[in-house]
Amino acid sequence: MKRAFLVALLLMSLTVTACSPKAKTTDVNGEAKQSEASETAKENNTASSTNIKITKHPSAADFGRGSVNTLPSPNPAYEGDKTLDLRGYDLSALDLKDKAKDLEYAEFDSKTIWPKGLPDKFDPKKQMELGKSPGLKVRELHKNGITGKGVGLAIIDQALLVDHVEYKDNLKMYEEIHCFANEAQMHGPAVASIAAGKNVGVAPGADLYYIAETHGEYKNNDFEYDFTWVAKSIDRILEVNNTLPKDKKIRVISISVGWDKSQKGYDEVNAAVDRAKKAGVFVVSSSLINTDGYMFNGLGRDPLSDPEATSSYQPGLFWKDKYYEYGDKFYSIMGEKVGVNIDEALLIPMDSRTTASPTDPKDYVFYREGGWSWSIPYVAGLYALACEVNPEVTPEIFWSTALKTGDTIKVQNDGKEYEMKKVVNPLKLMKELK
Asked: Where is the Peptidase S8/S53 domain (predicted)?
């Protein structure tokens, strides 16, 4: 479905996601799908007007799935991906009582129909509800009135289901720049709801500005990256920001994608990020280590564990699968490769999240395995909260304070105990920033 983080990236930033061919989207086989650009499609994409509105309503996604007589197999589209995509399937005819192992990495949505008998340790309803929480007691901040109210948060990602209940009330703008999908994709609703969703978001009170964008195009049956479109999207957000009142400014942009020197548009997108910095806008992306020098990594969680307890978190599934053999260097291995001390890497929730689904304005989907794509809007949401409690906050102050107030947790591997440092503590972070 996603794995929009493809960490072929130990030495560089991630290079997939919003409307890209490698981002897992919504086709029935769980394989990557990209809406083909019609030759008649014009660059309606480069809106120059400062009108702030929703310019398009992409249709809901339809997986075209139905009843099955056997449990689908995990999709091997990505090496090491254990997730079992059950979104939209009618499984009512199956006997799954003895399938606990098969369902350990199940991902499902509101349209998944379950049989009466399920394994004792598999509870999709409970997993779905637990996954709605941002975790780490973020909801306590909401109860205390810290929701990101009045703070502008922008996202550049895939085509969005703009009427989803999670964010429709705070969605101020939806535009498309070089994006050819006519139906909502899985990635957009997910990141929008993680950042600013009413029930699942980190900053449910933030004003949401959204641009759907495709960072490249197909040529000769191959996708060629072109990050000039991301640059144009950033500039469009800055243009809109110039029209907003001082107390309603966009303070952060979430972009779940990264770029490297080998790709077209590398200089252009870096220049756009620099313009955003000068305008007081924090751009959070998979290239954050290169643009700002900030390192982060993702955390996993057992689907039925308490998302509020720091002790429930562990290495994210992707990192665990790939790098856990390094033991106490599990996280530092990343930092060493890019020249960052591990104590400066902020650890952010990533796995076992419930997000808005692209299939219906009231549908939700549970993703057992996340990725940096899910951590990035989480960071953006936290920054929106920080801007509310302290309008004078800067990325430097935010990041250094997050590291200072972060928690250390211990994890077990092969009978050995290791420490994971700097797990973000939203309560301490906001208290310190006030």
From this structure: 148-287
